[in-house]
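Hi R.,

Here are the chain sequences for the assembly we discussed:
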Amino acid sequence: MVQDWFKDAIFYEVFVRAYADSNGDGIGDLLGLTSKLDYLKELGVDALWLLPISPSPLRDDGYDCSNYVDVHPDYGTLEDYRTLVEEAHKRGLRIIVELIPNHSSDQHAWFQASRDPAHPEHDKYRDWYVWSDTDQRYADARIIFLDYEPSNWTYDEVRGMYYWHRFFHHQPDLNYENPEVQRAMMRVLQFWIDQGVDGIRIDAPPYLYEREGTSCENLPETHAYLKRLRAFVDAYAPGTMLLSEANQWPEDVVAYMGEGDEMHMNFHFPLMPRIFMALARADRTPIEQIMARTPDLPESCQWGTFLRCHDELTLEMVTPEERAFMWEVYAPEARMRLNLGIRRRLAPLLDNDVRRIQVANSILLTFIGSPFLYYGDEIGMGDNIWLEDRDGLRTPMQWEDGPNAGFSTASKESLSDPVIEDPVYGYKQVNVKAQEADPDSLLNWTRWVLSVRKQHTAFGRGRLHLLSPENRAILAYVRQDKEQSILLLHNLSATRQETTLELPDGGGQLADLLSGEVLVSAASTTLPVALEPYGYRWLKLG
Ligand code: GLC
Ligand code: CA
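And here is the predicted structure of the full complex:
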């Protein structure tokens, strides 16, 4: 197996619960997803990242896990999971599942034993979570779910002590000081490797350990444990990719790659809001600034990039002024905001303007790293801000204009989440079937650009050279590997823009990868360019 397959991959994030319901109970499931693998293959993605599928009371859509080594009965069985993997592999698609090491659900048997002195296994589990007599420890750790939680400590009546939690109070943090916890999580990893996985997303890795007087994030002890997970993977199932979700500044994130001996990938969180900022300001400066503080990664590692995901569009990694600007532009209504972010989908964020959706995706697909698409964004699905928390971004996939958008044959009332029905983004207007039939649809555009990306290794593996045209509404860069050099041009503004570019390696032929046209035969190193509003070009040099 190619060990660094993830460098060439296009990823697709899918919420199993909302994708396709195979048994008509109103809930999406693993066999439903399996039935859509041909669609995904045709879309052109390479790897599917599944949101949590293990048993859970679902107060945080499975990020509150109550049994790490099984499948939630709503979604099917372990056998269904193995069927999914087998069918995916037959089509050359890879599967990535979640490991949630930082915390479990308070319904997990470990926590139930830990909290209750009368529990027969209390002695074994008492130190599996972070207990304290006071709620004053680790006061320098920030609260992440600001809209819901007043403190990182919650008092437990049964134990008569406080327990530590970085997220919801029903998600107690596991105690990594305890070697048994360390081993237990290693066994969970092994379990999922045994079921067949190609990669594991490590949820919320920065918070595994706590130390007084620190932010309790990115601690050396945490990195040491993550390195042990990696060493295990390298010994037991080499080629299994570890993708970490450290929502941190680039200089802190590189630590998660170690010297190529920790995580294979990490999302570039701070880049994402800056793509939106650059579009809103018609000025590439925010992207340049974050790239200036983005260190090189170890050769064997890769960034993950994205525009949207299942969480709010996070504004943790921006300044307070930038956050205020982003909220004003992209979340004018209070219900669009959540914690330090924006709970909206891609198409509504960009006013359903297909030019803006395409230029944003063009940047995503050609800039650094490996891109992640969020299910439904390939057809421009909308959101429902009247649902609670992040549920409005996680509504059923819109397959067709028939009942329940083709997601489920259950009665409308028994759907786990309502389908979107508004006049602009509702399933009658926005659905896969209609877009498959329309050559100009966003879906067909997405299929096409994904197929072009896949033909050029420079996008996944090449170096990035940012160019500095005088016109700051133009984002221009070259992606270059041993085989090819590709010049990418993006107009971030709503008006036509012109500039003259200084090409790094002189002139030559420029073949437009999207239109097939051979653009210029410039013998000189300067190239005059003109771009339509939100226009973009992918030009192969030489
Ligand atoms: C991660 C997940 C998010 C979840 C949180 C707590 O940030 O992406 O959805 O709520 O972890 O587990
Ligand atoms: Ca079902």
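The mean pLDDT is 96. The two ends are 32 Å apart (CA to CA).

Let me know if anything looks off.

Best,
T.
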